[in-house]
Amino acid sequence: MLTQDQILTILKETNVLQTGHFNLTSGKHSGQYMQCAQVLQYPDKASQLCNEFVEYIKNQNLQVDLVIGPATGGIILAFETARILGTKTMFAERENGKMVFRRGFFVEPGQKVFVVEDVITTGGSVKEVVEIVKEQGGEVVGVGVLVNRSPQEVDFGAPLISLLKINIETYDPAQCPLCAQGVEMKKPGSRGLK
User: Fold this and answer.
1) pLDDT digits (tens), the chain, 194 positions
2) Could you tell me if residue 191 is inside a domain?
3) Binding residue positions for orotate
4) Which domain holds residue 90?
5) Is residue 170 part of a domain?
6) Residues forming the annotated binding site for 5-phospho-alpha-D-ribose 1-diphosphate?
């Protein structure tokens, strides 16, 4: 298992931590952003990180039939985690603002599912995926995230493994000091503009 320092080193080496003025998917603002897609450019590094999920699954004796990631941050992570496990993978994506399974993807009743995501702040996308899995009769046995930047505990109704827990200050837009200073805004992420 990698240590927190080793994981942080991988993320720093691959330019995951961005600085500026960011409008997050959650609607909050921040002076820092974890752009986890940066590390996914390097298959060897992505594989190292996904192997941490697999080690957790094995150590917890979890049965996993399917690994699912929300688009776009979870797609590569779900694929690589499933490849290492030797199981099936798929992804959920937004349609009309709601997370859904498309492209013929579905969860079979009784399937044991592990959900992976690159970064969570509120955990909203993961919660949506968990709900879809439940609606289709599957059971979420665990959730794995590369970076957990949530200021409070997030309950997914299943055990959570965060490879890195980091506290990055966020602001409500009305109280954002970066807005007050007129710092140019970027809207990163899967629903972003830049």
Assistant:
1) 899 899 989 998 998 988 899 998 778 899 988 888 999 999 999 999 999 999 999 999 999 999 999 998 899 999 999 999 999 999 999 999 899 999 999 999 999 999 999 988 889 999 999 999 999 999 999 999 999 988 788 999 999 999 999 888 889 999 999 999 999 998 875 554 44
2) no
3) 121, 149
4) 4-180
5) yes
6) 117-125
Q: Is residue 194 part of a domain?
A: no
Q: Model-level pTM?
A: 0.85
- How big is the chain, counted in residues? 194
Total structural domains within the chain: 1
CATH number, residue 172? 3.40.50.2020
Annotated binding site: 117-125, 149
Secondary structure class of 120 (helix, strand, coil): strand
Alpha-carbon span 147 to 161, nearest angstrom? 10
Give the E-state strand segments of the chain in sequence order. 17-23, 29-34, 66-70, 88-95, 98-100, 112-120, 139-148, 160-165, 170-171
